[in-house]
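ok so I'm stuck.
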Amino acid sequence: MKKLILAATVALFALLATAPAHAAGLPTISLGVQDSAQPDQVATSLKILMVLTVLSLAPALLIMVTSFGRIVIVLSFLRQALGTQSLPPNQLLIGLALFLTFFVMAPTFGKINNEALQPYLNNQLSQDAALEKASAPLRKFMLRQTREKDLALFINLAHEKKPRTIEDVPTYVVIPSFIISELRTAFQIGFMIYIPFLVVDMVIASVLMSMGMMMLPPVMISMPFKLMLFVLVDGWYLIVGSLVKSFG
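replied:
not stuck anymore, here's the structure
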């Protein structure tokens, strides 16, 4: 797990390798601009600032460029369809989504660790080469989940020339295309989850109306039936299995 987390961090560094660094000094640290006779010292200081900046953005990047977004949206739809309000709690859903994300991304993070992180730590690759190697598996994962229509949209919005190959598509175009493709897929899965529970709600409401129990909220009666249905069909097994397979 430690290697996967470290590999994920290296992949995030790769995606922001060309981004400008903005960092604020801590109250106990004095930052200043001084003349230096050794250029290596300046380069090291800039690298430290860039690393601190990327680390502060790491949680948001983890959400945006991995499978986390689709998984957590589908789990949230499931909770709303069940009508259990805050059960399971947010901490549990996010924790499950994180572990499922590491499970889905394990092959990608494994490639980053083997092809970029370990050679870089063993001084077999330069920093630029390691970042390029690390970004390739993550780009491949995102492009596999991205629709051509969404990719074409952002290529047109960026006024980029039509790429001859998929490798020519810039990373800053791939990321937003991947995000909206993930949102569309997550909402499609959420719609399919809602259908059986909606049928249960409609049946319970019709029965209550036919019995003349107009003042009894149908939600109070339908929720136990929805929970029973979900347990009988082994809902968590089906939902998690379908989610993981959707990234195949």
